[in-house]
Write a structure and sequence with these properties.
Oligomer: single chain
Helix content: over 70%
Order of helices and strands: HHH
Number of domains: 1
Distance between the termini: 54 Å
Radius of gyration: 15 Å
Amino acid sequence: MTDASGQPDRMAEVARLAAMIADRILQLNAAGEPIPPEQFVMLVRAARALLDNGVPWPVSVEYVIMEVAKRVEQPHAAEQTA
């Protein structure tokens, strides 16, 4: 169902597309292929739009975002203990 602006339908479509991008990133990673930066940027923008509109992230989106966050935090934690 949608209101006059169609916002819920738009957010459902954003969630669907974000999940597709996340799934593609996971496939590339599993195959040992580089992840095109523009795909990751699209995923982050979609995740932000979902967050801003109170829409939960699809599981694959949450997984990719959290894994990247862990990898970014690891070097920072090592620098602080050195």
